Amino acid sequence: MITKNQQVSLNDLWESASIDDMVFYPELLIDLPDLTRRYLEHAIAPGTPLASAVRLWMHGEIKIGKKWHSFKGEEVICWNRGMIWQAKTWMQGLPIWGADRIVDGVGEMQWKILGLFPVMQASGDDLTRSGVGRVQTELVWLPSVLCSPNVLWTELGASAVQAHFTAFKEPAKFTLTVNNRGMLERVKIDRWGNPEGEAFHYVDFGGIVEESSTFGGYTIPTRLRVGWYFGSDRFESDGEFFRCTIDKAIYR
User: Fold this and answer.
1) Distance between CA atoms of 245 and 231, rounded to whole angstroms?
2) Model confidence over 181-209: pLDDT tens digits?
């Protein structure tokens, strides 16, 4: 049975994005901490329209159980509505298609072998809450949202700054590590999840930026390693589960 949420396609989500006439200028950041200004001025070129959505094409590896599997995927993040990530991977030589989504406050996951036989599906409040954390983290691909006056910033040191905001009714404490040129190096957030397979709880979640590129005036991470237990030894041993390379990005 196809739910109302699943009827919203990736194209539908993209076309629903609002278009704003506002453009980015460094003067917009005058009241922000120095490190925040350095990051945003590096991430967004002057005169770039402040986008409310990004569409990404990517490839990489995803860890399922203890094995890494290659994937190709496409994603739309629409700040007003949510996110859809659809991808194809392979297990034991068989193709698996599926999608993770959170749209209009509802999170769902569904994956099928050959596009027919379910191998993984989930929904519910915990999955939705975890999906919100994912969207919050992926604002590294939509930094225009971080220019909003509703985002409050705190410098944590010479190279780290924390953004406080609310997305889809969930508060976020989004920590960015930035080098002296303003380039993003690491991101971390408290994300609702259950990587141990037990009760859901807040877990340190984040990623390491290994490469960045520029698309349409936005300089964003294009090669990342992402996972749970970020900032601890467990990240390398059993927390990391997603490695991706962004091949193309467009903004709306």
Assistant:
1) 22
2) 999 999 999 999 999 999 999 999 999 99
Q: What is the pLDDT of residue 4?
A: 63
pTM, two decimal places: 0.95
In whole angstroms, what is the distance from residue 191 CA to residue 169 CA? 14
Exposure string over 48-75, b if 16+ CB within 10 A, otherwise e: bbbbbbbbbebebbbeeeeeeeebebbb
Owner of token pair 């196809």: 2
- Predicted pLDDT of residue 229: 98
d(CA 243, CA 22): 33
**How many secondary structure helices (H) and strands (E) does the chain include?**
4, 13
* Strands annotated E in the chain: 53-64, 67-78, 82-91, 94-103, 106-113, 117-123, 152-155, 160-167, 170-178, 184-193, 201-215, 218-228, 240-251
Point out the residues of the chain with pLDDT beneath 50: none
User: By the 8 A CB rule, do 145 and 79 touch?
Assistant: yes
Q: How far is CA 207 from the centre of its chain?
A: 10
- SS3 assignment, position 28: helix
> Per-domain residue ranges for the chain?
33-247
Which one is the CATH code of 33-247: 2.40.50, 1.10.10, 3.90.1690, 2.50.20? 2.50.20
Residue at token pair 């990489």: 60
